[in-house]
TrEMBL record:
It comes from Tsukamurella soli. This is GNAT family protein. InterPro entries: Acyl_CoA_acyltransferase, GNAT_dom. SUPFAM superfamilies: Acyl-CoA N-acyltransferases (Nat). The lineage of its organism: Bacteria, Bacillati, Actinomycetota, Actinomycetes, Mycobacteriales. Residues 18-155 form the N-acetyltransferase domain. Pfam families: Acetyltransf_3.
Length: 206
């Protein structure tokens, strides 16, 4: 088995968000997005600091060149940079991949941009690439992330205890989630409903 199409950089566009292949030209917008909420200050996240952003972009692009990651920059439809996300842990033998290394500017949390980005990524993974499984992982301490992944419709597979260390040296427990191919139609319907509800909630009537 392998992917139905070659897994390579691609632009995915929805109503609220556009996912573009990560490029160094996004650096200034990503640096500005980092300052919105100072996400790197939270010890349990892997969000790069402003000083480490350039190295993180280089790292992701190097992994892309090695065929191990497809990194994206998330932008609003007006071109404002929201954050970053990736396909990684790519295994063509299943085929499967994981979605992660995601962060978005804090002011966009709860606006629907993240669920739509996940809808775009999942749709491409299952409907175009032919994945059998799409995984997610986060840290046990990151309750916000765990709840967000569960709201997508992913099922928790388990916890890898003392999986690695945080930047501060504390041991980290990783929580694993996944969506299987046969579950995708239900997850897709759920996400579309969430996004329609969000649009109706913020609709302006004359």
């Amino acid at each position: 088995m392998t992917f139905a199409q070659p897994i390579e950089p691609v632009t995915l566009e929805g109503r609220l968000v556009r996912l573009e292949p990560l490029a160094r030209a996004h650096s200034a917008g990503l640096a500005e997005a980092l300052e919105d909420g100072r996400m790197w200050d939270r010890w349990y996240t892997s969000v790069p600091s402003p000083e480490g952003l350039s190295a993180e972009i280089d790292r992701r692009l190097a992994l892309q060149d090695a065929g191990q990651m497809i990194p994206f920059t998330a932008l609003a439809t007006d071109g404002t940079v929201l954050g970053m996300t990736t396909y990684y842990d790519i295994d063509p033998d299943v085929p499967r991949l994981e979605i992660g290394y995601t962060w978005n500017r804090q002011s966009t949390h709860g606006t629907g941009t993240n669920p739509e980005a996940k809808l775009l990524l999942l749709g491409h993974a299952f409907d175009v690439l032919g994945c059998e499984c799409v995984g997610f992982r986060t840290q046990w301490a990151n309750v916000q992330s765990r709840e967000a992944i569960a709201r997508l419709g992913a099922k928790q597979d388990g916890v890898l205890r003392s999986y690695r260390r945080y930047r501060n040296g504390a041991l980290q427990d990783a929580v694993l989630f996944s969506i299987l191919r046969h579950e995708w139609p239900s997850v897709r319907a759920h996400l579309r409903h969430r996004l329609r509800y969000r649009a109706a909630e913020y609709a302006v009537t004359p």
